[in-house]
Amino acid sequence: MDGSAAIKPDKYGQVHEQALWQRIGAFEALEKDGETYICRGAKGSAAIIFLSDDMFRVKIFHGEQVDLSSTVAVLPQSGHVSVSVAEHAEQVIFRTALIQVVLDKSNLSLAVEDLDGQLIMQQHPVEWNARGEMHASYAMPTESHFYGLGEKTSFLDKRGEKYTNWNTDVYAPHVPEIEALYESIPLLIHMVEGRSYGLFLDNPGRSDFDMRSHETSFKIGCSTGAYDLYFIHGPQLKDVVSRYTSLTGRMDLPPKWAIGYHQSRYSYMNQQEVLELARTFRAKQIPCDVIYLDIHYMDEYRVFTFDPVRFPDPKGMMEELRSMGIRIVPIVDPGVKKDAKYKIYQEGVRENHFVKKMEGDIYFGEVWPGTSAFPDFTEDRTAAWWGDKHKYYTDLGIQGIWNDMNEPAIFNESKTMDLDAMHGNNGKPLTHEELHNIYGMLMSKATYEGLCEQLDGQRPFVLTRAGYAGIQRYAAVWTGDNRSFWEHMAMAMPMVMNMGLSGIPFAGPDIGGFAHDTSSELLIRWTQMGAFFPYCRNHSAIGTVRQEPWSFGEKTEAILREYIGLRYRFMPHLYNLFHDAAVNGLPVLRPLLLEYPNDPNVTNLSDQFLIGEDLLIAPVYRPDTTHRAVYLPEGTWIDYWTGEAHAGGRHILAHAPLEIMPMYVKAGSIIAEGLLKQSADDTANEQVTFHVYGAAASADFAAAYKLYEDDGVSFAHQQGARSELAVQVAGGSESVTVSWSYSSPGAFRVNREQLGFTLHQPSFVPKAVAGLAQLSFDALGAGQAGWAWDAVKRELHMQVADRAEGGQLEITV
Ligand code: MIG
Questions:
Q1: Closest to 546 measured CA to CA, from 273, 158, 338, 358
Q2: Ligand 1: distance of its center to the CA of 415 in Å?
Q3: Architecture of domain 683-812 in CATH?
Q4: Residue 404 CA, ligand 1 centroid: distance in Å
Q5: What percent of the chain is modeled with pLDDT above 70?
């Protein structure tokens, strides 16, 4: 029989719903408090703070005082910006050296214009309701394109898409209609006719970005917390990325081994299996730097333990692996098993480190270890405690940690912690609902900082699944539980490109696919592509077919060996790009759009990418496919494999049999390649060859490259132990000159006897190289200084001694 519950009251209808939204209302007064401008409206206020001439923060608040604290995403900003303020009858105008912000007094809508008065961004009035939801609409012209938002499904351009930021463990196949995955980066980049700006909503609760529902506007909203928005001016896309990363921080230069090839599986079950795996890599001469230990290494999934039967001697195992040049990265989840006899649990309870329900009891959730408690990383003292616990791993020789399930993922209907669980938040308690998206990042921050303390000057490596804006300061990100689907291989490209535009340069998918069964062909094509992704790990799920590089017979193995080896040969260049990313925030893997923002052919180009500025990668991502269309932007592009030169600004059809992934290098560029190594931190011989593409014997030809090097593992580079080698190539009518020099010779000595210079497809045939003997290729290969010309491939190879004072080669043409 029904009770009263059956006769439930109405929900609000549409009309009522609309009436419930409040607006800030008309302008009442302008106040200034230090560097903060406060615009009082009839029903609320906006605080505006200029962080630079091209970046400002606007926070909506109620009441007298504004709370200007930020989340941990935002680095402390300082410095005075000179702003002129003018109050007119209908507007208040703030003007910096680069932009003006125009507030409409009738409703406090806000526009950003350049100094000529051309509109850049238009925000309609912010609205809120009694449930604490807030949103604003922004003008969207027909030429709009959208990027950023971190780890999202679908294509590169987010126009027509709608996403939610709510860190979620999604094991179900990642398809275009999935609005939230593991990471939340509430940064939207809006590009109109090649001009870009960014909007970053610093809110770690749920946020929504809707570029779909309205024809002429897009909408950014949040469910709880503050509407705390940063406007980041371009107009170049690169400016937006570099300014956004000056706000939320940049990745530190990772240890070189972290950018090698990594091998994982859920799980390598015991010590013998791990050692056998490492020996197989070495026996088969397939380069590898890291093996991962997934959850089975632990004693019944208790973090900070090893299973005593499966791994009786972790220290011995670690030592043997290190002698092979291989490191271990174990998984660490946030859930701490509820077990009265387990030290970490005891300590956590005794010292009050676990998240509690509002009523005061510890919050428990079900995860792998069974009933578990969760450290409250919002408390600095708890983060420090957790970080210290990693001494358990570092004492065993471990330098890298893999954080999983840190959304946090919990096996219940909501898939996460109860929304009313409380976080201490260093004395400003907030609900889990308000802080959800920041939990995983705070776990990785605690881990990174703990490792830094314990590693005695060695660089740590942290890999995370969940994150929030700024995660790049602490961890690399992998894109979670994809599947061995061709569609997921293809989707990894736009996903990782947008992560790069969102400040996260160190990212990649599980190569080969995690769930479902991979195939020989899929693993080949995915490894070819993955060899150029910033983060390069093969990982697969329990119960799926084996996915190690030798799992599909010799032919497959040979191709995988070749491409993994190629990554190692490109290591000097890759490491250089990681260094650039650490300095300027620009990604290693880039959409073509970043370099060619005015080319209409690349606004949604989702199946090709650039490594740095000049290396174009066009993977094959469909089965039984031996040709694909490749778009080459302006300039001349040289086929990496054949040397054939193609005019750009058009599409070409690339021939790509199974062993070939199409790659092109832009004429006029230089790329440093090193020797093939079995692990990235093998520094025994750092011989390097500078490959110069399309050099021309004409006065307007110039190419330059700077090679950054250091010991690859320590922080000594921050104290100056680094080497920078600048190379220039200059054309002339009768000669072409290659010159090079070290910027502070001796600050860091690289182990190397020789330098190589290879000119690919020069416009000329060399007659002589001043001071250098013409040799056979055999003599060059044997290490003699000299030069040789390959008339068939049109390549000039030169080899010289590497001297601290640098040098110069003059090629007579
Ligand atoms: O619920 O640790 O995304 O990489 O192998 C699964 C087991 C938990 C999810 C991760 C995956 C990892 C797996 N983990």
A1: 273
A2: 14
A3: Sandwich (2.60)
A4: 7
A5: 98
How many angstroms separate the Cα of 215 from the Cα of each of 128, 152, 159, 210, 543?
22, 22, 11, 11, 46
Residue from 167, 291, 294, 478 whose mutation best tests the ligand 1 pocket (most atoms within 8 A of CB):
294
Measured in Å, residue 757 CA sits from the centre of ligand 1 at 45
Q: Is 530 helix (H, G, I), strand (E, B) or coil?
A: helix
Q: Are 731 and 701 in contact (CB under 8 A)?
A: yes
CATH 2.60.40.1760 residue window(s) in the chain = 22-248
- Cα 514 from chain centre: 19
Delimit the CATH 2.60.40.1180 region(s) of the chain. Answer: 589-665, 683-812
Q: What is the pLDDT of residues 194-237, one digit of tens each?
A: 999 999 999 999 999 999 999 999 999 999 999 999 999 999 99
Q: How far is the CA of 441 from the centre of ligand 1 (A)?
A: 17
pLDDT tens digit sequence for 438-447: 999 999 999 9
Which residues fall within 8 angstroms of residue 13, CB to CB, at 6 or more apart? none
Atom of ligand 1 nearest to the CA of 541: 5
The structure tokens listed for 688 are 């390097």
pLDDT class of 139 with cuts at 50, 70, 90? very high
User: Are the C-beta atoms of 789 and 762 separated by less than 8 Å?
Assistant: no
Return the CATH architecture of domain 589-665: Sandwich (2.60)
Amino acid at 266: Y
- Is the domain defined by 22-248 classed in CATH 2.60.40.1760? yes
Question: Which residues line the pocket of ligand 1, CB cutoff 6 A?
Answer: 266, 294-295, 331, 404-405, 465, 480-481, 514, 539
- Model confidence at 79, pLDDT cuts 50, 70, 90, reads confident
Which residues are designated catalytic?
A: 404, 407, 481
79 three-class SS: coil
Query: Going by CA atoms, what residue is nearest to atom 1 of ligand 1?
Result: 405
Strand partners, 128: 22, 134
